[in-house]
């Protein structure tokens, strides 16, 4: 039996528009039954806690979509339902994704009053032309205004996302965005390379040779630039795509990277409870209808111990601290890390992609600087053939 989850993910699928690179479960807000969705979401909360009663929730993450498209009354209703069904720790990390174009003071106040204490802004770039090119609705001025409003309300724990490898982006343009981002002196930054996903506008353009992306060498230079500039400012590169001041690492996302259980609620949401993963029904109306009579599952399946061990390695090696033999053995009492994955580990060490360190009688494996740049190759080595 896994421990009861102490982390909660909730999906708000509505957006003002669909970004050109986005393949998440999200739907244009206009005409959507938002209040009915929030009612259905509360029904899923109720059914979930009846089956897997929570103890104390230490982290909450509300993602999307764009959760901040909710009106202040809708936001109040939603946040009240979370507190009604889930016992939140006094020091809970309560994160919500936010779009700089959808966060006025009234909405931020409703979020703050409802318990949200960490904001993750989808900034992506400090270049207005690039923002238009990727389908974002906000402009750079909206970023500064949103952060100013958030600070005035009382938010102190804030993060922004930046993207690199965008169409028409150069190393110089990225350096300008990084400089402006760091001038904000935020406690956390997330940095992601563009991935061309199916069922997106960018995928259609890419397939028809209409999407001009930076050369692979330039994208590599962008990643090195990001690491160098942000680490120069004293931020810890604690996960492949994330940098934080001490004490401001994302506690919720660390749940995923440690392969620990979590509740997942909302249309298209994923969850991991009692060594069983599930994904919910996609589509707003199908989700609403399903919640009237049952948990809105699209699929659920038991995770074998072998798969769980592979997942442990794949996600754990994303962390700068690496994977600890003691933690592996705690999750899998009948196994040891060196015995089960020793051949793969030694092979990756021979390639210079992993290193072995001993700290306080614990053996730790972590990516080298070279391995950090070739992370996907390392992760894949720990996965058996999966469809």
Mean pLDDT reading: 94
Return the structural class. alpha/beta
Count the domains: 2
Given the C-alpha coordinates, what overall shape results?
A: globular
- Output the strand order for the largest sheet: 9-10-8-7-6-5-4-1-11
How many helices? The count is 15
Helix content: 40-55%
CATH class of the largest domain: Alpha Beta
Low-confidence stretches: none
The percent range for strand residues is 15-25%
How many strand elements? 17
Structural description of this entry:
The chain is an alpha/beta fold. It has 2 domains: 7-257, Aldolase class I (TIM Barrel, Alpha-Beta Barrel), CATH 3.20.20; 322-381, no CATH class. The protein contains 15 helices and 17 strands. The strands form 4 sheets. Strands 9-10-8-7-6-5-4-1-11 form a 9-stranded mixed β-sheet, with helices on both faces. Strands 12-13-14 form a 3-stranded antiparallel β-sheet, with no helix packed on it. Helix 1 (34-51) runs parallel beside helix 2 (72-85), helix 1 (34-51) packs across helix 10 (284-291) and helix 2 runs parallel beside helix 3 (105-113). The mean pLDDT is 94.
